[in-house]
Specification:
2 domains, seven-stranded parallel β-sheet, 12 strands, Rossmann fold, binds nicotinamide-adenine-dinucleotide, 330 residues
């Protein structure tokens, strides 16, 4: 059994090697993504594994995969929007994803950023870096005195809720799906507005779709308390970023931590040292001392990377051996 894996990063290679050993299969890794230029590399392999930003849109790619005898595409991600599912179906390619690689990975980043915000960490670091060790403006709040509002209490939101509850915070949530198992650690609110009005820290964990695009818009931001913080480690377009920048400038809310931004594919995971930033909104946010930006690294832990490799390659093997996988997306 020989599989080909595209867009492989150095940090994935040890997990790939370990998987090969455990499963007695051969995995060839390439650094390029799957495109019309690279699709011929697949000839001679039995399975394909992908993780890439570039959409696989060209019908010729799907046609060639089928002609090489390929039966599946295993994605190393939860999202599968890079694949044209109609074309995948047309060319008899089963598509699998990794529905959950480590909710804890994102939830821990969120908790860290919440604590950094309430301890005024950006201001403290700014002052310290300038040799100013005075305490003025550094007095902090304690998490056990605050209400954390989770919007979207699914896999990641539910995990974050458990961590905040363990730290003694009062946790409230809005989610149209009420999960009995979360009721002992959080209180469900009737709607989003009620969470926004009550929470000292609002953390977003909804999926990105038509109904959640700009879910947090100018109006939603006015419903938040003026001393509350917003955390977005879900997807950039869920927040109206211009409205957020305005609210921060006008001190309508106290601060924000953002692991995802609109148009992030143009700047996250790139190096702009000694260059100007390519995005005005990013530049504005980076200049604020009550805003924490991370370059979409919520998922990026050793556990999550290992799970992405293991689960995706496992699904590829399942399809090749049994024609079925529990991780098929259609
Ligand atoms: P999930 O499907 O397990 O949970 C999402 C929850 O949101 C569900 O319970 C759903 O009912 C709820 N929901 C949907 N629309 C809602 C709305 N309008 N208001 C309130 N609740 C709503 O998803 P998940 O795996 O927990 O992922 C959550 C988010 O985290 C997604 O946006 C995902 O893309 C993102 N994510 C980010 C990173 C990162 O590195 N920062 C990594 C993985 C996932």
């Amino acid at each position: 059994m020989k599989l080909i894996m595209f867009s492989v990063r150095e940090d994935e290679k040890p997990a790939v090697k370990a998987w090969e050993k455990r499963n007695g299969a051969e995995v060839i890794t390439v650094t390029d993504p799957l495109t019309l230029e690279t699709v011929d590399l697949v000839e001679g392999y039995s399975g394909v594994c992908l993780q890439q930003r570039i959409d696989v849109t060209d019908e010729e790619i799907y046609r060639k995969l089928e002609s090489f005898g390929i039966k599946q595409i295993a994605l190393r991600t939860a999202g599968y929007d890079i694949i044209n599912l109609n074309l995948a179906k047309k060319y008899h390619l089963k598509v699998t994803n990794v529905p959950a690689y480590s909710p804890t990975s994102v939830a821990e980043l969120v908790v860290m950023q919440a604590l950094r915000l309430i301890r005024n960490n950006p201001i403290v670091e700014d002052q310290m870096n300038n040799g100013d060790f005075r305490w003025g403006g550094m007095i902090a709040k304690e998490i056990n005195t605050l209400t954390v509002g989770i919007i979207g209490a699914g896999k990641i939101g539910g995990t974050a809720a458990r961590l905040f509850n363990a730290l003694g915070a009062n946790v409230i949530a809005y989610d149209p799906i009420v999960r009995e198992e979360l009721k002992e650690i959080l209180t469900y609110e009737q709607d989003q507005q009620s969470v926004l009005e009550k929470a000292d820290i609002v953390s977003l964990h909804v999926p990105l779709n038509e109904s959640t695009t700009q879910l947090i818009d100018a109006e939603a931001l006015t419903q938040m308390k003026s001393d509350a913080y917003l955390i977005n480690a879900a997807r950039g377009p869920i927040v109206d970023i211009k409205a957020l920048i305005k609210a921060l400038k006008e001190k309508k809310i106290a601060g924000a931590a953002l692991d995802t931004l609109p148009n992030e594919q143009h700047f996250f995971n790139f190096n702009f040292k000694n260059q100007s930033l390519p995005d005005r909104d990013l530049e504005a946010l980076m200049s604020m001392n009550n805003v924490l930006i991370t370059p979409h690294i919520g998922f990026y832990t050793t556990v999550a990377v290992q799970n992405m490799v293991d689960i995706s390659l496992g699904s590829a093997l399942e399809i090749l051996q049994t024609e079925e996988s529990k991780n098929e997306v259609y």
